[in-house]
């Protein structure tokens, strides 16, 4: 450690030989000490800070099933102060919502008494069913007509399908082009005024009968259906192509 006695540094003019100021030497020592410990962060230190911020986001936000998360830290000012922290960098943030595209992460080293706020750009993608060919209204969707493609959630906020089986066998209600994401309102797994199978389920007991759908529905939708035998109108869940399940 640097030690300084209370003495004075004399600054003089070489041309005139006159003395202008008497500066306490401890001030000079302080300036040397201060400048030595406020150096700008190195490239490696900045990269470590960015990686810590990105890792925090990836660890605290869950990816959708089959999806992925990409976290990209913003560039930092190379003049920021940082050190080679003797322990693992600590990270925290107040915003961990899936709907946010930017999260600010606090990266800090308590041992060396510094902290830096790092903006992190967040991209969340999920697999959605898309068409592999152009399809016309009224067409029945076959296995060769669809595929799963990764779609960024911020670019597609409407309801789509995450499983091919939810769409295969359904009837299109509109024309679709190659690469279109199939939305729930684009197809009917159960279609209005068409014949369906009604499965009445109670515990392990299941009875099937025929009926007529009174409105369109995709997989998982609740629809109204008329029992063709009793003429009774009931509500059930679409569980397959032309199939409605009613739980008693």
UniProtKB/TrEMBL annotation:
The protein's name: Flagella basal body P-ring formation protein FlgA
Keywords assigned: Bacterial flagellum biogenesis, Periplasm, Signal
Subcellular location: Periplasm
Organism: Vibrio hippocampi
Keyword Transcription regulation annotated: no
Gene3D superfamilies recorded: 2.30.30.760, Antifreeze-like/N-acetylneuraminic acid synthase C-terminal domain (3.90.1210.10)
NCBIfam families per UniProt: flgA_cterm
Pfam families listed in its UniProt record: ChapFlgA, ChapFlgA_N
Family: Belongs to the FlgA family.
InterPro entries, sorted: Flagellar_FlgA (IPR039246), FlgA_N (IPR041231), SAF (IPR013974), SAF_FlgA (IPR017585)
Biological role stated in the UniProt entry: Involved in the assembly process of the P-ring formation. It may associate with FlgF on the rod constituting a structure essential for the P-ring assembly or may act as a modulator protein for the P-ring assembly.
Principal subcellular localisation of the protein: periplasm
Listed PANTHER family: FLAGELLA BASAL BODY P-RING FORMATION PROTEIN FLGA
Boundaries of every SAF domain copy: 126-188
Classification via SMART domains: SAF
